Amino acid sequence: MLSDILDLQDVYAGTIDGNLDKCVGVYNAKTSKPQRICIGGKACPKTLEKHISVLIHWTDTPTQAEIKAQSVLDILSDIRQYKGDGFTVKYLECKEPVSVGRDERGVCEYVIEAQYITKGMNEYGKHNRSLSRI
Questions:
Q1: Least trusted range by pLDDT, from 5-9, 37-41, 51-55, 91-95
Q2: Which of 99, 107, 113, 131 is deepest in the core (most CB within 10 A)?
């Protein structure tokens, strides 16, 4: 889904290819809010919140990396009612990109912390929290 939205081929879930100069990785956020449980229990919610970190691993030029990070932020912030396979991303709430420095090869990296809200269940009647959906 995210590779289509960002129009990028090299988008990875849970990792990146550190040999590339340009790619994006999506990770579970290191911190998140407590899970909300609806009245009626875990079987009743119609939406799900998921906290993620989006790593923009982009060239050895800081200006280009910052421009790409801002572009990714703009695209993510505009997502509304995106329909995927059996679910709908209602919207994403994103924080500003933060530079996390360079990797060991000198490639600049930025991180965008985000929370997305989905609606829909998998074939087992449960919300799928997997990053592979992104």
A1: 37-41
A2: 107
At 113, list the tokens: 């912390």
Q: How many CB atoms lie within 10 A of CB 129?
A: 12
CA-based end-to-end distance of the chain: 5
Residue 44, exposed/middle/buried by CB under 10 A (0-12, 13-18, 19+)? exposed
Q: How many whole angstroms separate alpha carbon 118 and alpha carbon 129?
A: 10
What residue spans of 8-133 are helical by DSSP H?
Answer: 62-77
For residues 12-43, b (16+ Cβ closer than 10 Å) or e, as one string? Answer: bbeebeeeeeebbbbbeeeeeeeeeeeeeeee
User: Sign of dihedral through CA atoms 54, 59, 62, 68?
Assistant: negative
Contact 33, 51 (CB under 8 A): yes
The amino acid present at 43, given as its one-letter code, is A
At 78 the pLDDT is 94
pLDDT per position as a tens digit, 67-101:
999 999 999 999 999 887 778 888 899 999 999 99
pLDDT for 84 = 79
